[in-house]
Structures are given as structure tokens and as C-alpha cells.
Amino acid sequence: MTDYTPIFISFKCSFLSAIIVVPWGLFWGWILARKEFRGKMFLQTLLYIPLVLPPVLTGYILLSLLSQDTFLGKMLFDVFSLRFVLDWKGAVVAAAVVSSPFMIQAFKQAVEKVDKRLEFVARTLGADMGRVLWTVTLPLSWQGIVAGFFLVFARSLGEFGATIMLAGNIPGKTQTIPLAIYSKVYLGQEAAIVPLVIAAVVIAYMGLWFSSIFIKEDVR
Asked: Which of 32, 113, 150, 170 is 20 to 30 A from 181, comparing alpha carbons?
């Protein structure tokens, strides 16, 4: 009998990771699109490095930072009762970190397509930078935000290496679809993999399909 719990865990963790990444992506995407400063290329490369780092290494770094043996991990647990190691919240954080470059890039490209003259006019009319962002930039770049959200969701769904390092592979608690597939292959339970594979492909396809709706190619 197929256990569908990994599907629900994956959906929950992917959705929450996408929500977490949105403000992070908006902030850094706007910085990279609108600001010029020394070290900008270094910063951009650093923000995008989760794309090329081995996910297991990313998970190890997160484990080193968020373990309750560390200052940060202990503080988060003592103050906010947040535990990430061997917990589903760790799966959310792992997926968010690995997929965050997709949100940054999607919003950066969307902001770059917003006419700077509109923002300039708003500033000349007395609007401060924050008001310009909320009333001009964000409304004109909302498609990039939505596209980035679904890209992050789709990427989070397939996260494996960082998740298993930080959250572990605990059935019914932290075992996502990729981890469940790995476990069943290892145990020789190939028949139980089919529903998980179908669910993963369908959900990932829908995430990419929705993101493609809102990604506008610049044909100029």
C-alpha cells in the first residue's frame, strides 16, 4: 500500500519555502537591478552560489549553523522554540536556501524591465523610495514575483541533498518525495515508487507551467 504522506510533506515544505524566499528575493533582486556599487558582481555571485554548490554541502553548512550545539541554533530554540535539525522545518529552510536564486533572478529581470522614468517621476512628485517601490515598481513587476514563486516551489519539490543533511529522512515527519523514492529504491520497493513519481512530475510540471505564464520574454 502506497504511503502518500511524503507528497503532503513535500507540498507543505515547498509552499512554505516559496513564501519564505519571496521577501528575500524581492530585496536582493531590487538591489541588483537598481543599485550600482563596488563589489556588486561579488555579491551577485554569492547570492547565486546555491545553484552550483553541491546540495549536500549546502546542507552541511546549514547543519553547522543551525545545530543546537551552535550559538545560532541554540538561540533560535531557546527564544523561539525553533528546531531545524531532524525536523520538517529544516526541510523548508534547506529548500528555501537552495532555490532562492530563482526568486532573486526572476524579480531582478522583472525590475529591469520597469521604465526608470516612471520611478523618477514618482520621486519628483514627492514619493520616497519605499513609496515608489510599493506604488510603481512592485505593481509593474508582479509577474516576475509570481513566476519566481512557482519556480522556487518547483525547485523545492525536488530538493534532496540539503534536505537529507539538515532534516534527515524520517518517514512521516521529514521524508519528502525525493527521499521517499530513494528509500524505496534502496529497499527494493519499486512498485511503491510509481505514485510518488507521478505526483512529483505532475506537481513540478504545474509549477513550471504556471511560472512560464508570467515570464515575459523581452523581444526588443
From this structure: 150
Crossing angle of helices 5-34/40-48, nearest 10°?
170
pLDDT in tens, 121-136: 888 888 888 888 888 8
pLDDT digits (tens, 9 = 90+) for 168-216: 999 999 999 999 999 998 888 888 888 899 989 998 898 889 888 877 5
Q: Taking the complete model, does pTM exceed 0.85, yes or no? A: yes
Q: Would you kindly state where each structural domain of the chain is located, as residue ranges?
A: 5-36+43-214
CA 123 to chain centre: 32
Q: Is 126 left (phi over 0), alpha (psi -120 to 50) or beta?
A: left
The CATH number of domain 5-36+43-214, selected from 3.30.1330.40, 3.90.180.10, 1.10.3720.10, 3.40.50.920? 1.10.3720.10
The grid coordinates of residue 136 equal 510603481
Instruction: Give the residue from 111, 82, 110 showing the smallest Cα distance to 20.
Output: 82
Do 207 and 154 meet the contact criterion of CB atoms below 8 Å apart? Answer: yes
Residue 127 C-alpha cell reads as 514619493
Which position has the grid cell 509549477?
Answer: 207
